[in-house]
Amino acid sequence: MKPHRTYRLRAFRRDEDGATLVEFALVLALFLLILFGLIDFGRMAFHYVTAEKAMHIAARVAAVRPPACAGVPEFHLIDPDNTDTTPPDYGTRCNAGANVCLPAGTISCAGALTNSTVAEIWPIVRGTLPNDANPDALRFSYAYDPNLGFLGGPYVPVVTVELQNLQFRFISPLGALVGLTGATAPTGLGADIAFPAMSVSMPGEDLAHGSAG
């Protein structure tokens, strides 16, 4: 081999002019992964915190408005299973004894804008949720509690507003950015994930039967 060719080959092996560019590309991909990850997970944290506050307001509204579900009684009725020879007087507390008030169990339904209570609550929570959320992500429950209410009085259940079955959508290609760093992206990274479910319960008041309802 001629001397000048040997020199060129050795010089080529020692040449590191492009190493900085390669290192920069790897560091840039890692930086972008961290940056976009912070943005997306920050978005999810924002939605969660604001949704949690909105759900407390929603439960408060539901506790003083007409039921969002069909079939919720308007008043506490006497339990037909009561075998006392002298029926309890109207005004008797439901927990004063066995079988005073008729237990209505738990009545649940998904939110629908055709209901006036849901139509009032939905704008309160809508802005805090992922963009593709629909009213049926809200679920309302009215559970009988013998410690609430009295015979002949307005039906007073425990009212629960629940948020469920939502997906959070990432806007950043996190999986692709991991690939640019030379690592293997975990399965599902950057794909839609389940938005945390949450629920708030509180005793109903008069479910809008009172004079100020």
Write up what this structure looks like:
Helix 2 (19-63) runs antiparallel to helix 4 (174-180). The mean pLDDT is 82. Strands 1-2-3-6 form a four-stranded antiparallel β-sheet. The protein has a two-stranded antiparallel ribbon with strand order 4-5. It has one domain (20-203). The protein is α+β, with helices and mostly antiparallel strands and 213 residues long. The longest helix has 45 residues, at 19-63. The chain has helices spanning 3-14, 19-63, 116-126, 174-180, and strands spanning 106-110, 138-143, 158-163, 167-168, 193-194, 198-203. It starts with a helix and ends in a 10-residue tail after the last strand. Helix content is 35%, strand content 13%.
Quickly list its features.
single chain; two-stranded antiparallel ribbon; TadE-like_dom; transmembrane; transmembrane helix; membrane
